[in-house]
Every structure is written in structure tokens, then in C-alpha cells.
Amino acid sequence: MSRIHVTATVNGDPVEFLADPRETLLDALRNHLDLTGTKEGCGTGDCGACSVTVDGTLVCSCLMLAAEANGKRVETIEGMARDGLHPLQRKFIEHAALQCGFCTPGILVAAKALLERNPDPSETEIRYWLAGNLCRCTGYDKIIRAVQDAAAEMRQDHRGAA
Amino acid sequence: MHNFDFAKPSTIADAAKALAAEGAQALSGGQTLIPTMKQRLAAPAVLVSLTGIREMQGVCLGEGGLHVGAATPHAVVAREARAHYPALADLAGGIGDPSVRSRGTIGGSIANNDPAACYPAAVLASGATVVTDRRRIAADDYFQGLFTTALEAGEIVTTVIFPIPQKAAYVKFNQPASRFALTGVFVAKFASGVRVAVTGAGNDGVFRWAEAERALSADFSASALSGLSVDPAGMMSDLHGSAAYRANLVKVLTGRAVTAAG
């Protein structure tokens, strides 16, 4: 079973590694690239803890083979904070939108993907978008409020910058 | 997962060649196949990814209706089919969750033919044509029972051609954990008559509800269904819903779909 040479961009940095065909993108991120912010929850695409974006689309990295990431642009939780925490990260802390934190990287990545498409989502749109991200601690309400608050702040900043 | 060799051809011809190998299996979005391999319920010797084949991507109008490339993810169908076939776009945009819709494809869905998948209902109700690397298969001949289709070993679904109905809608009752259809009904009204396809309910997978088609062809309104009933004997029964419950859902959702189609 020959290994596969994969070159990709992860959080803006060019990377390359040799993937076993069985390895998922999640395995590659954690084991080849030491990016352990992305978590394995269920491993079957049900929980969303492994959410990353590939060429801008949200995916479960546990259900995508590492070999399929060849030539792609991958963004993970490690790429989220730029000059200080991302507004979503700050609002999650302010609203206490996490408890154990295991689902948080996936939810932040998913929420960021939503706000890039839709800067002013309704509560319903947020809930439907995050349907694939399970949290067993918070009961979701604080997460929804944190996303709404972050979205409001980002719209404000955007208007200020314009 | 058992180990395998991975191939990612860029043409249908090369994919067909790769799939001729002993133990070869096509991989599309992988939203079902990868978990199945992790559980060791599938152990292909060669995995042939269809995601790099440009000619199997995208949505466009063509001869016979709307041509949907088999490797087009649900999210793209939801976007690109909107202007031409809104009911199909709605169905695609309601499958699973955003991550599933980013990767999962129409070809993968109908090749797998899960009895609770959404796409088989659209394909059957639209009277679509399933185009493969070998032939064209009418939807009525394509679906042959649970996880069973007319596809031969190594045959690749390349495009699905949807005739565009005058009116159509898909309504599903979600199984809230998996977001598969506990039962889903696709109603499509053509000049030649109405087609009704039901997923998530039948013992043999997706099926057409002939009595409802006759009633709705005569009178396209939810009230036309009032005298009809569905025999629970042919319905699935599991911890999410009994056969009688599903039989009732079929009728209720058909009515809702007719109303939604307008």
C-alpha cells in the first residue's frame, strides 16, 4: 500500500507529508503537522468536533482522506487568532459558551464559516448551521448568543472600516 | 480501517479502468463510505476517488432537463439548481448538516441508495435519467430495494438528468439525531401527470405511491388525498417509528408537499 505525497496549504503555510491511504485529514493535521486543536469526537461525522474548512467549505476532517487534501487550502482553529483572538473566540469566553471545551474548536471554525457567508444570521440560521456540531455541556444557548454577539461586533467593525 | 491503495483519476475513462481492479470501490464524498470502512463493514482493496473528475461536477440546463454532475456536492446543487428547479435545491440544502453538504454528492447518495436518503425521492419523483459510463437508466428501473440499484460492478454514475416539473416540493420529517428522513415525500407535477416518491418509509426503499399519483393527477390539492390510506404492511418499523406511524406520515407529508408546491 503505497504512501501518498500530499502538498497543501494549512492556515496559510505550505505543508507536505506522506500520507498512509487510511489516514484522514484529521489524522494528518494532528499526527503529521502537530496541529492538535482539531479534535476527534466520534470519528463518524456526527459530532463536528473535527470541523475544518477546505477551500473555504466546512467539512468533517475525520471523513475526508488526507490524500484528498492534496492541493487544497485548509483552515483550522490554529489559524483563527490573528492579531489577538478572533471576535468569536473572545465572545465565547465572555459568554462562557464552553465548559469542557472539546467541541469548541469545531464550533468556532463552523461559526466562522457561517459569518463569512452570512454576516447577519438569524438565531434559526445559526442553529441550523451548527446542527452538525454537538455540545454536551452548554445546552447551546450561550453558544448561539456568543455567535450573535460576535456577528454584531464584526458588522460594526466592518462598517467602521468601510 | 483495513488498508487499501488510493487512486484519484481525473477522467471518467481512467476511473472506469481503475474500478476494473479486483476489490476496487468508488469513493465520492465519503460521508457514508468512510465511516463504513472505519467500522470495517467495507474493506476495498483499491479506493478510487471520483472527486477529481471535472466532467462529473456542476449543474447546467441541457437536453432533457437539468443535468447534475454525479460528483456535485449537495451544497453546490442547493446553490446552482435554485434558479432552475427550486424543489431540488431545497432538498439538497436540507440534507444532513453543512459538513455533509460540503462533501456528500448526488452520485454517492443514489449509488448507495440508503432507504432513508433524500435524493432517491427526487430522482424517482422527477422521473430522472441516471447516466452512467455505460448506459442511461430510467429512475423507475434504477432503484431496486434497500441499498440495491441497477448498477453493475464498477459502473459509475456520471450525471443525473432531471426533467423539470411545473410544480414540485419535497417535505421530510427529520429523524432529529441523524437528520435522515424518518419519512420524506417528493411530489412533482408534470403536464403528463403527478409523480409521488416516498423515502424513509418503505421496506424496499424509495417507492412511488400510485394511488396518490392518480388522485393528484385528477385534482392537485391536499384534499384529494383524504380518502386514501397507506398499508403499514409495506412500511419499515424501528425504534424511531412504527410501520403504522410511517404509513400515516406518508399521507400527511404528501399533503404538505402538495400544499408547498402550490
TrEMBL record, chain A:
InterPro entries from the UniProt entry: 2Fe-2S-bd, 2Fe-2S-bd_dom_sf, 2Fe-2S_ferredoxin-like_sf, 2Fe-2S_ferredoxin-type, 2Fe2S_fd_BS, Beta-grasp_dom_sf, Diverse_Oxidoreductases
Domain 2Fe-2S ferredoxin-type residues, every copy: 4-80
UniProt keyword annotations, A-Z: 2Fe-2S, Iron, Iron-sulfur, Metal-binding, Oxidoreductase
Pfam families: Fer2, Fer2_2
Superkingdom, taxonomy of origin: Bacteria
Protein's UniProt name: (2Fe-2S)-binding protein
From TrEMBL, chain B:
Entry-linked Gene3D superfamilies: 3.30.465.10, CO dehydrogenase flavoprotein, C-terminal domain, Uridine Diphospho-n-acetylenolpyruvylglucosamine Reductase, domain 2
InterPro entries, per database record: CO_DH_flav_C (IPR005107), CO_DH_flav_C_dom_sf (IPR036683), Diverse_Substr_Oxidored (IPR051312), FAD-bd_PCMH (IPR016166), FAD-bd_PCMH-like_sf (IPR036318), FAD-bd_PCMH_sub1 (IPR016167), FAD-bd_PCMH_sub2 (IPR016169), Mopterin_DH_FAD-bd (IPR002346)
Boundaries of every FAD-binding PCMH-type domain copy: 1-167
Alphabetical UniProt keywords: FAD, Flavoprotein, Oxidoreductase
PROSITE patterns on file: FAD_PCMH
Family matches, as Pfam families: FAD_binding_5
Protein name as catalogued: Carbon monoxide dehydrogenase
Annotated organism of origin: Rhodobacter calidifons
